[in-house]
Specification:
It comes from Microvirga guangxiensis. This is ODP domain-containing protein. Pfam families: ODP. The structure is a single chain. By secondary structure, the chain is of the alpha/beta class. The protein has one domain: Metallo-beta-lactamase, Chain A, CATH 3.60.15. It is about 30% helix and about 25% strand. The chain contains seven helices and 14 strands. It has a seven-stranded mixed sheet. Strands 8-9-10-11-13 form a five-stranded mixed sheet, with no helix packed on it. A two-stranded parallel sheet has the order 12-14. The chain is globular and about 55 Å long. It starts with a strand and ends with a helix. Bound molecules: fe (ii) ion (FE2) (2 copies). One fe (ii) ion binds next to helix 2. The site of one fe (ii) ion has 5 residues, from loops.
Length: about 250
């Protein structure tokens, strides 16, 4: 396995490790994003066992000890499994996440106390502005959240739009169809009442780029893609509800 690096926006690097053994032959990619500024920020730490690969990739871009912020979408191994490895090598680094994640998991699991972010709070990392947005249960996990980099209008949407394969770093092709195909395999989205409204609220940000954790980043009509995804989940939710006893 190797970790590929692509700059998908101004000083925003996508680190991608494709694992061919997960759902072969397409395989499955794990992406982290490094946002450079006076206070460099990582979104997703990578799996704990992938730390040697991911940290070596980051070291090709900057000294790893300069990392300041460790962020991720929710408490799961691929999102934050290596957070303590990062805290160990970067003495000034701090985990930052929403209130629920900090209270439920991170106050205990992180080796140094995390910074608690309120919904909509911005971390100015010097040259980039990272807004944290709570998205409870979307796509899964009650501590779920995303980040939005305001200067480049990049929405780091975590597991939303998850799809298989080892596609290009950036695509203008359809990402909704592949996401629904992956959903049929993984059933990873919490099909509840908040999914469609939350995804539609993200569309109000009018992102220029959707940075996906599993799959290619997207630079087409992001607003349409978010609304299409919301509608598809709404349809699935209605179908599921229709099958329930009254
Ligand atoms: Fe996840
Ligand atoms: Fe993930």
């Amino acid at each position: 396995m190797e970790t590929r690096i692509d700059e998908i926006g101004d000083r925003i690097y996508r680190l991608s490790t494709h694992v061919p053994d997960i759902v072969p032959p397409a395989g499955f990619a794990f992406n982290q994003f490094l946002v450079l500024g006076d206070e460099p920020l990582l979104f997703h730490t990578g799996l704990r066992r992938m730390f040697p690969l991911v940290s070596e990739a980051v070291s090709r871009i900057m000294p790893i000890e300069n990392l300041r912020w460790i962020t991720f979408g929710h408490y799961e191994a691929d999102e934050c499994g290596a957070m303590n490895e990062w805290l160990a090598v970067a003495p000034n680094a701090q985990v930052a996440h929403g209130m629920t994640g900090c209270l439920v998991s991170l106050n205990d699991m992180a080796d140094r106390p995390p910074r608690v972010l309120s919904n909509g709070e911005v971390i100015d990392i010097g040259g980039k502005r990272i807004r944290y947005i709570d998205t409870p249960h979307v796509p899964h996990g009650w501590d779920a959240g995303v980040i939005f980099e305001e200067t480049t209008r990049t929405l780091f949407c975590g597991d939303l739009f998850t799809h298989l394969g080892n596609g290009p770093a950036i695509t203008e092709g359809d990402i909704v169809g592949p996401a629904l195909a992956a959903e049929d395999i993984f059933y990873d989205t919490s099909l509840g009442p908040s999914i469609a409204p939350t995804v539609r609220r993200l569309a109000e940000l009018a992102p220029r780029t959707l940075a996906l954790m599993h799959g290619s980043s997207y630079v087409g009509d992001t607003v349409a893609a978010l609304h299409d995804l919301a509608s598809a989940y709404e349809k699935r939710l209605r179908a599921a509800m229709a099958g329930m006893p009254a």
